[in-house]
């Protein structure tokens, strides 16, 4: 799997779309996915709107529970990396970050806004 660093400055305003959700390695047994160090992995839906284009939502995996995130809040995504994958006839792009934190000094806006 090839990893591609992502320049978050080119993604426009990043907003948390929903509260962090724990990621399961097995949905039937509800076994929580863990990283190499044994930390639980969470998924955060983040909206992006590069250069005034349409808003897109990417799901970003992060180790450990991100604190203080609320829907609509502007966030800072540190160390964002994209991974191209394929499994049989399915393929896609997954995203992982070192951290997702509230952006300081940015007010959360409900619906609408930049992204």
TrEMBL record:
This is Regulatory protein. It comes from Streptomyces tibetensis.
């Amino acid at each position: 799997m090839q990893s591609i660093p992502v320049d978050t400055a080119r993604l426009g305003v990043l907003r948390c779309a929903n509260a962090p959700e724990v990621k399961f390695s097995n949905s039937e047994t509800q076994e929580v996915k863990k990283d190499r160090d044994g930390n639980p992995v969470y998924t955060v839906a983040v909206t992006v709107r590069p250069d005034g284009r349409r808003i897109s939502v990417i799901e970003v995996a992060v180790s450990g529970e991100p604190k203080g995130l609320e829907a609509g809040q502007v966030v800072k995504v540190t160390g964002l990396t994209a991974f191209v994958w394929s499994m049989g006839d399915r393929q896609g792009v997954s995203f992982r970050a070192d951290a997702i934190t509230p952006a300081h000094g940015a007010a959360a806006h409900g619906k609408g806004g930049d992204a």
